[in-house]
Each structure stands twice: as structure tokens, then as C-alpha cells.
Amino acid sequence: MARSWVVILRLFASIALVNTQCTPETFATILANNAEATVNFAQAVPRNGSFGQGSANIPFPFNATRLPALCAVGINVKSSENSSYNFGLFLPDSTWNERFLATGNGGLGGGINWPDMGTFSHYGFATMSTDTGHISAVFDGSWALNAPETVIDWGYRAMHGSVVLSKHIITNYYAKANGIKYSYYASCSTGGRQGLREIQLHPESFDGISIGAPAWWTPRLAGSTLWQGLYNYPVSDSKHIDNSLFPVIVAEMKRQCDPQDGLVDGIISDPYGCNFDFEALLCKSTNATKCLKPAQLTTLYKFYNDWVDEKQEFVFPGVSLGTNPAFLMSSISPLGSDFSRYFVYNDTNYDYTKFTYKDVQFADTINPGNATASDFDLSPFMKRGGKILKYHGTADALIPTGSSIYFYKKVLQTLRSKGVNLDDFYRFFLVPDMGHCSGSETGPFYIAAGSSSIAGATHSVPGHEDAEHDIILAMMKWVEVGEAPDQLIATKFVNDSATLGVQSQRPLCVYPKQAKYISGDPNLPENWECKSLY
Ligand SMILES: *[C@@H]1O[C@H](CO)[C@@H](O)[C@H](O)[C@H]1NC(C)=O
Ligand SMILES: *[C@@H]1O[C@H](CO)[C@@H](O)[C@H](O)[C@H]1NC(C)=O
Ligand SMILES: *[C@@H]1O[C@H](CO)[C@@H](O)[C@H](O)[C@H]1NC(C)=O
Ligand SMILES: *[C@@H]1O[C@H](CO)[C@@H](O)[C@H](O)[C@H]1NC(C)=O
Ligand SMILES: *[C@@H]1O[C@H](CO)[C@@H](O)[C@H](O)[C@H]1NC(C)=O
Ligand SMILES: *[C@@H]1O[C@H](CO)[C@@H](O)[C@H](O)[C@H]1NC(C)=O
Ligand SMILES: *[C@@H]1O[C@H](CO)[C@@H](O)[C@H](O)[C@H]1NC(C)=O
Ligand SMILES: [Ca+2]
What highest taxon heads this organism's lineage (predicted)? Predict the structure, then answer.
């Protein structure tokens, strides 16, 4: 089955033909009836060529490289009286697979994601990414100050407008009678939120989406990011945990939780099943180092547990056991403080050290840019045949893993009474030990999703370019052939370099199932099985 699938894809790739020129005039003609859209450029890129906008594209300063021969296009769209956004297209020449794939952004950043577009163009997709209406670094939210129209572009408007116009452009550019066969989306983090928001507002946009660690609950995530940083301040306080203790904390979590999942392998496969004894970190004498004092332990408790308000109401999940706390604890992340300053209070001098739950409640009422992807009734997307593959690392310090579990459960609570079986259209995979969107020291994590390119590979999983190992191919197979993935096999390459070969592979299971070790070499996927815990 897997092999014939690849053959089918190759067949599509070989029959697509372009009969239009890659020039600004071509696209100006296609957009002639759209008063808001302007062509910035159209540039032919030869096979194995590169494309990008250099350092002017702050979050994506590196060119996409080793591209298939394609046409790179830039379009500007006026979105209100005083705002506009740009989007870019990579339109493969003879290798077009008659499919469209859009990708997204990271953090609060703005810029066209040419690198991920390049990765996905290798499958044959015509790819698109938008700058969301501004140019900024991932950790910079200052652009939002008194710019409500730009915040709306970032929230959802730029993505939707870009998707609609891209489909129009692609259909006309290739001049194929049947137009686009299938439309997809793949991205992580803010990109995950953008994809979810798009299918909530416009279920018709995509046939399938691959979503990683989505930043879906915007005011809560930003608020919690700030709140978790504030636990550890001021530095002079006895509750402060110094940077030097973070490795000690992670090591103790690994020591206790790694074996509790059934196999000592340096990987905490089930952080939620770990019965962790925090007090094991307590200092045993007054002069002891590499240990915590009682006040510090209280900070740690808060950090690894859900944030609840004074009335014990849930606000946002904490990070999971095994996550390195350095990202949120060693400084106050602008992802939290900039959001309050520039999106909520419009005040550059806002004193974020006074931040409390009341500020989260206020941010909830504003919901800047209407960005929050909290329409849990995904049945319109399901009814049009849409499929969702979602993944989240269990050691994510930027976006707590629990926020994806919470989202999943909310959708379940919304749809189960309607007789829906989530597995029929929405499958969720936890990736043990993976950090934010990609990366793990020892755990297999690589599934060829967006924002996770690997050294020595243009795309996909070298040596395993099939729907069992590659989430993009799994998504296509589910949408186009109707075969859903019961598991995905994640790969760990030696030193994360595809040219050095595979170190280990392991199944990722459809939530809430978990991979359990059977016997034999634990680096081989066949020695694991996906099991229900009850
Ligand atoms: C493709 O381009 C890269 C540089 O991006 C270069 O190192 C490589 O040799 C080129 N390969 C071919 C086949 O031309
Ligand atoms: C990146 O791509 C642009 C556009 O094709 C090109 O002008 C530039 O030279 C490239 N930069 C590098 C470092 O290859
Ligand atoms: C656009 O105009 C409105 C109304 O004058 C103003 O509030 C806003 O700051 C302007 N800029 C943006 C990017 O929204
Ligand atoms: C800040 O500006 C946004 C629009 O950009 C508005 O919705 C919000 O109410 C303002 N905040 C305050 C505290 O006035
Ligand atoms: C702790 O350190 C202080 C100062 O260095 C020293 O005077 C004291 O004897 C030490 N106490 C113990 C129990 O080692
Ligand atoms: C925000 O989006 C929701 C749909 O999720 C819609 O019902 C609502 O009208 C939107 N609000 C604004 C202010 O655009
Ligand atoms: C992997 O990286 C380590 C540390 O940088 C290095 O010592 C080792 O030689 C590398 N392995 C291979 C096969 O390149
Ligand atoms: Ca383990």
C-alpha cells in the first residue's frame, strides 16, 4: 500500500505542466479584478536554486535552498484603510502535484516563512505563507501598539485572505481544468493557532491540517507565560531558583519519572503518569548545594502544576514534568510582557510586575485580534471531510503540553454528545521528550512536520519517505485515500543529521494511547506497541 501510494504521488508530479510565464505581469493579469492586491515581484528560481529576502525578513533571514525549479511570487494586500499584509508563493514548475499547502508563523513574529515553504515545495505543493501584516522578530510584540488593524491581520485576516487569493492565483497560473485537487495546511506554534483559527472560521479552506503545539489560547498563554516568569522574581527573594539549579531539577525528574513508564531509556514517556516526589529535591543540610530550600520548592510546585485563581478555578496548565524550566524562569519572556503592554493595555510603560489574574480576565474580554482559536465545535470542518493531525512535545517549555490536551478534551466534550468519534477526523499525538515543535536529546521526535527541518534533508524523512513516518504524507493519505494513521513512527537521526543515519525510531500513538515497550532492541519501532492505559 505504502509503495503504490508513493507511485501515485510521483505520477501526479510527472504530469503537471506550466504554460504560463513567471513574471509580475502574469500575476497582475490574474489579479486584475482585485483592487486590494498588488504584485511585489515574481522571480523564476532554477532547480537547486535558493530564495529569500535576507535580513529584511527578520524571523526568516535564511534563504530556502536546494529548491525545485519554481516561481517565487510576492503579493501585497490592503486589509483596511491603513493596514496591509504580504504573502509569498512558491509555484513549482514541472513538479507541481496539483495540491496547495499553506504554512504559518512563530511567536509574535511577522515575515514570510520561505524556509518552510521551500521544504514543502519538495513534495510538489504550491506553497504559501503570509507575513501576517507586519515584520518583527518572534519575541517582539511592539508592532501591535495602537495598531488594531494590524493585530486583526495577525489574528486571522491575513491568513484567510492569503489562502483565498492563493487558490485563485494557483488555479489560474497552472491553467489546469480541474484546478487544485486538495488543499492543506502544516505549521507549529503560532502557526498551529493560525491553522486552527482558519478551519474554525472557514472550514472550506483546507482538506487537511497538520498542527503542532498550537498557541491557540492567546490571552491565557501570554498571561501564563508572564505569570510563570514572575513566580521566580524578584531575584533577591528566598523563593528564587537560580539558573544553576535547572539541570538539577530536570535530572531529578528524569531519575524518578524515566523508569516509571516501564523502560529506563533517558526518556520520560508518560509525564502525566509519573508520581513525582518534589521533596526529593530538598536540601539535607544548611550548606548543601544542588538542592532546593522549602521556599524554592513552592515556586517549583506552582511551575509544574496548573495555574488556578484564588477561587481554585483553572486558568492555564503548567508545564509537564521533565520540561527544562530555563526558558520561562530565567527571564521574563516578552511573549508575556509584550502582549500585556502592546496588545492589551497599549502602554509602553505598563508595569508587568503588578500582573495578576485580573489582567488575564481583562485580556480575555479584549481577545486582541480575535486570535484565540477556541471554537471547539469543529463539526463544520469534520462534515466537509476535513482531517486534523495534531502533535505536541511533552517537554515543551514555551507552550505547555497540557494546553493541547485541554483543547482536545474541550473538542471531545463538545462533539461526543453529537455522536462524533474524534478519531474519525482528529488525531492527536504526544511526542515524548520533544521540546517546542522539534528537538529532543535522546527521544525520536522527527516526523517531517513544519518548523523542524533536519540537517542533510530537503524534506520528509530520508530513507522513510512514507505515510508511516512523515506526517505530511500521513495527512495526504488520510484525506485522499481515507486511511487514517493509527500511529506515526518518529525518527531520531544520529546528531540530528540525516546523513549520519537513524539512531532510533519509535511509534507515537493516537491520544490517549501510549507507546509501551515489548521486548528486544528499544531503538526499533516494532518492539513497541500503542496501548490503552485502561
Ligand atoms: C545544490 O546547491 C547547493 C548549495 O545550496 C550545492 O552545495 C550543491 O552542490 C548543489 N547541487 C547540485 C546537484 O547542483
Ligand atoms: C537569497 O535569495 C535571494 C533571492 O533569490 C538572492 O538574491 C540572494 O542572493 C540569496 N542569498 C543567498 C545568501 O543565497
Ligand atoms: C488605523 O486607523 C485607526 C483609526 O484611525 C487607528 O486607531 C489605528 O491606530 C490605525 N493603524 C492601524 C495599523 O490599525
Ligand atoms: C488597547 O487597544 C485595543 C485595540 O488595539 C483595544 O481593544 C483595547 O481596549 C485597548 N486597551 C485599553 C486598556 O484601552
Ligand atoms: C556551613 O558553612 C559555614 C560558612 O562557610 C560554616 O561556618 C559552617 O560550619 C558550615 N556548616 C556545616 C554544617 O557544614
Ligand atoms: C470573533 O470571531 C468569532 C468567531 O470565532 C465571531 O463570532 C466574532 O464576531 C468575532 N468578533 C469580532 C470582534 O470580530
Ligand atoms: C556527534 O556529535 C558529537 C558531539 O558533538 C561528536 O562527538 C560525535 O563525533 C558526532 N557523531 C558523529 C557520528 O558525527
Ligand atoms: Ca523511560
Answer: Eukaryota
Contact (Cβ atoms closer than 8 angstroms) between residue 115 and residue 104: no
Ligand 5: which residue has its CA nearest to atom 4?
287
Of all atoms in ligand 2, which is nearest to the CA of residue 65?
Answer: 14
| Residue type (1 letter), 116 | D
**All structural domains of the chain with their residue ranges:** 1-180, 185-217+373-534, 221-369
pLDDT at 497: 96
Rounded CA-CA distance 191/384 in Å is 22
Whole-angstrom distance, CA of residue 249 vs CA of residue 409: 30
Number of Cα atoms under 13 Å in the Cβ half of residue 136:
22
Which of 22, 424, 434 has the alpha carbon at shortest distance from 189? 434
**Residue 85 CB less than 6 A away from ligand 4:** no
H helix or E strand, kind and range, residue 358: helix 357-366
For the chain, state the CA radius of gyration: 23
Rounded mean pLDDT of the chain? Answer: 95
Residues in the chain, pLDDT under 70: 1-19, 177
Distance CA 191, CA 438 (A): 14
| pLDDT at res. 255 | 98
Instruction: Give percent helix, percent strand, percent coil of the chain, each to the nearest 5.
Output: 35, 20, 45
Pairwise CA distance, residues 131 & 104, whole Å: 9
* SS3 annotation, 428-495: EEEECCCCCCCCCCCCCCECCCCCCCCECCCCCCCCCCCCCCCHHHHHHHHHHHCCCCCEEEEEEEHH
Residues 499 and 497: their CA atoms lie apart, in Å, by 5
Among all chains, which residue has been given the C-alpha cell 513516518? 469
Where would I find the H helices in 367-440? 379-383, 401-415
Pocket test for ligand 7, best of 441, 442, 495 (most atoms within 8 A of CB): 495
Query: What are the angstrom distances between the C-alpha of 236 and each of 239, 242, 444?
Result: 9, 10, 40
Q: Which residues are catalytic?
A: 189, 396, 436
Distance of alpha carbon 256 from alpha carbon 281, whole angstroms: 11
3-state secondary structure of 3: helix
Cis peptide bond upstream of 148, omega within 30 = no
Q: Using a 6 Å cutoff on CB, does residue 66 contact ligand 1? A: yes
Question: How far is it, in rounded angstroms, from Cα 201 to Cα 312?
Answer: 32
202 Cα–ligand 3 center, Å: 26
Ligand 8 centre and the CA of 138: distance in Å?
Answer: 33
